[in-house]
Amino acid sequence: MDYFLQQLINGLTLGAVYGLIAIGYTMVYGIIGMINFAHGEIYMIGAFVTVISFVVLGLTGLNQTAFILMIVLLSSIAITSLYGWTVERVAYRPLRHSPRLAPLISAIGMSVFLQNYVQLLQGARVKTMQPVLQGGFTLSVNGDNFAVTISYLQIIIMLLTTLLMITVTILIHRTPLGRAQRACEQDKTMAALVGVNVDRTISTTFVIGAALAAIAGFMVTMYYGVADFFMGFLAGMKAFTAAVLGGIGSLPGAMFGGLLIGLIESFWAGYVNAQYKDVAVFAILMLVLMIRPNGLFGRPEIEKV
Amino acid sequence: MVSARLKDALITALIAAVLALPLAGARTIDGVNGLTVEWHVVDVAVAAALIFLGRLSIGLIIDGLAAYIAPLALIFGVVAAYMPMPSPFLKTVAVIGGFSIAGRAAFEILRRRFRSTHHPGHWITSFAGITLKSEGILKNLTAVSLLLFVFMLVFPFTPLSTRYSMDVAIMVLTYVVLAWGLNITVGFAGLLDLGYVAFYALGAYSYALLAQSIGIGFWTALPVAGIIAAIAGFLLGFPVLRLRGDYFAIVTLGFGEIVRLVLTNWTTLTNGPNGISGIPRPTLFGLEFARDASEGRKAFHEFFGIAFDPMQRVMFLYYIILTLAFVVGVFSVRLRRLPIGRAWEAFREDEIACAALGINRTRIKLAAYSLGAMVAGLAGAFFAARQGFISPESFTFQESATILAIVILGGVGNPLGIVLAAVFIIGLPELFRELEQYRMLAFGAGMMLIMVWRPGGLMAVREPTVRLRAIENKV
Lengths: 305, 475
Known about the structure:
The structure holds two protein chains of two kinds. Chain A is built from eleven helices and four strands; from the N terminus they run H-H-H-H-E-E-E-H-H-H-H-E-H-H-H. Chain A is mainly alpha-helical. In chain A, the strands form two sheets. A two-stranded antiparallel sheet of chain A has the order 1-4. In chain A, helix 3 crosses helix 8. Chain A is globular and about 65 Å long. Chain B folds into two domains: 126 residues, no CATH class; 330 residues, ABC transporter involved in vitamin B12 uptake, BtuC (Orthogonal Bundle). Chain B contains 20 helices and six strands. Chain B has a two-stranded antiparallel ribbon with strand order 1-2. Chain B has a two-stranded antiparallel ribbon with strand order 3-6. At the A-B interface, helix 2, helix 3, helix 4, strand 1 and helix 9 of A face helix 1, strand 1, strand 2, helix 10 and helix 17 of B.
């Protein structure tokens, strides 16, 4: 039971991160109907900016941890969002009206480019950081030296994710920006006719997705203390799986899918076989797409001529 | 006009500087006490300045100031070659950038001149003074392909052939075969397969494992590997081909990763990340290519009574892959003219109209997918036989992306373009080793830019295979 509880805590933490990345996939898919294959790399860049700004701030000799964390988070969000905006501008906007596969290929190109760009500049080796926040609560101690713990970081990750989820939901359902986004999702031409700036709305969607990915990258770097240029591929695939599982285009679906994938991965690693946890996730992706392509919360898509 | 261009260039450069500042300006390196930073702010400033100049000149060329930009860019390119720069990469960018902008400006000048005075037709044709007929192109393509094949046939006997150039040629040909196989799936049927390398891996491991367990030879294993890969393609294709294009792409990507992960983790069968070594080499009717033949076998040089030379084996491998390439090439070109090829074409252009014509979509997709897989399986068996050693390292997503880049660069559906693209993508970085580390970077940028400029692929020939001749002749 204790072991189960510990895996549950770890799985929820992991799932929160996947959920945040998955929102980026689901929002972009909802609005322009394309898989933003480079989104995993955006998350990787978020993690790298976090590492870099930590090291730079560490060199200045600042001491207030909370202050440093704030600056690091904000700079990571700012720069990663700009990356998200640029990616859309360079690789996707010119292809807005092309056949479906052209933007996907362009996105794959962007993803390969960003991976190698970071590898060339920052090196191929794993970047390891000193843990910043340590400690946590011990929930229960068992006879055979197994303690269920929840660290401060895990609490922060879960709280921050919940807060962000609420914010994004309000943003989509209650603000003019969200209304514009929903309008573009339904019909871009009609939205433009009633005065919605479609290009700007799509750009904003990418920026929001990138900002959330940056926060996810920040949290993962804090949590595991490592970053490398290839981390975006697997995390991106898992988050995409989460988005598909929840029903691509659906916001609560992405979060729920993220949590589910995090839990499956954690329990699979804990109870079945740690080596095949990634295989399990990919198998779920394939099964969901084959059996229920609209996911758990998605709407069926109508084929139009 | 100029001030607007200035503003635009300034904003672009500023954005680029902000993007590059953390990742390129502050490089994290391992220090004594954990990570530390190595500053490269000058690099970022120079890069931003270059971007500013480039963006400005392209804007001004469009505004009709090409005549001023052309000499300036040319001078800049020459000066940059002798100017001190913070890194060789930036220097290369500056020089190549200067010359290509000069080229772009010259192009614009010519274009304007010829468009205004001469024929009203398409400017390239009027500029070169030639008229191209699509029928003619197709005939020329056949001639060019034949010429190329004859050249490849005699290549090992020309002075160009060294041990090294032969190795590169074998590698390029392997990729040509792979890309032609993927071209059946992506180019003909328009199904984006991102896990193509899985079938390549299946072919390679089929041969390696069959040779180790029951000791079958290369020539028996070659068709077996092809069939195993085709069956795998069929089995995977059956459930996933109902999916829409982009979902299909993602599922194939997942399949590719699953195959790689299973190969890495199923250590009892595949020896995991350490790979399988000692895979037997191909033989010529039982003759081995080795200094000393194994028990009960004869070596090639003993049989013919000539001196042993390691080049004999390389040449033999070269001819195997050349034959394989020839067969696959002819097969895929003929395939296009079969009813199934036409069905693929119709499917690629419009899926719903194709279904409305009564074509069974699942069946033709399945055919394209398993045929592509079969070719990858054949190439995989050859790869295993050539290397003598395989490990999951060789079958990553990067490999799939490389093959896809060849198909896209070659013009989706264009077999001859694919050959050129394979030479360009595989051969060139082999010859210029220092470019190796920039290879994947260039692939990524190339894939993206080609899609943005020409979504149909570079050098794309979308020749209809059927024509209404009677009507054309009347007109």
